[in-house]
Design brief:
Shape: elongated
Number of helices: 6
Number of domains: 1
Radius of gyration: 25 Å
Number of strands: 0
Strand content: under 5%
Structural class: mainly alpha
Order of helices and strands: HHHHHH
Distance between the termini: 42 Å
């Protein structure tokens, strides 16, 4: 599995900014109120990031190479890695929402203070979610069971290790 692409995270962030500005502009132009985020949203996003990091920590301990470490279930590692990727993308989207609300608020003649603390809380919580998710994704890299540098070069090339009649004869000659 590939790690999260920074370009994808930036594009998601910008999508959140543009969509929030457009949505709030439509709300205000139709005479409706601005929809501010709650200050608790940032707390929930930050707690979600810490939870994802907490779930990935046993995988990091198991793959650290220390003797006596428990074996990692690869299915659990993949599930946590996908949760971490989803958390990183979600954090980028909500960070865009918070920044979009701040930008929209500063374009109004009078800055509505109701969106200030909710937006700042959302930005901080979503930044924490994104950072913890990227670290958790890094933790979920599981090394192969039997690492052999010679075999790795053959598998990277896409060819199987060569074992044919000539190799058997060469091995017998060297014995």
């Amino acid at each position: 599995m590939q790690r999260s692409n920074p370009l994808t995270l930036f594009a998601t962030f910008m999508l959140g900014v543009v969509a929030t500005i457009g949505f709030e502009w439509l709300q205000v132009s139709n005479g409706r109120a601005i929809l501010p985020p709650s200050a608790s949203m940032g707390i929930v996003l930050g707690a979600l990031g810490i939870l994802i990091l907490y779930m990935a920590w046993p995988i990091k301990r198991a793959t650290s190479g220390k003797p006596g470490a428990k074996k990692v279930n690869p299915f659990v590692a993949v599930r946590i890695a996908f949760a971490a990727r989803a958390g990183a993308i979600t954090g980028a989207l909500f960070a865009g929402l918070g920044v979009g609300l701040l930008i929209f608020g500063f374009t109004l003649p009078v800055f509505p203070t109701v969106i200030l603390w909710g937006s700042i809380s959302t930005i901080i919580g979503s930044a924490l979610l994104t950072a913890c998710s990227l670290i958790a994704e890094w933790f979920c890299v599981v090394p192969p069971d039997d690492f052999d540098p010679d075999q790795e070069t053959d598998s990277v090339k896409g060819t199987a290790p060569k074992t044919g009649p000539s190799d058997v004869a060469t091995k017998k000659a060297h014995q």
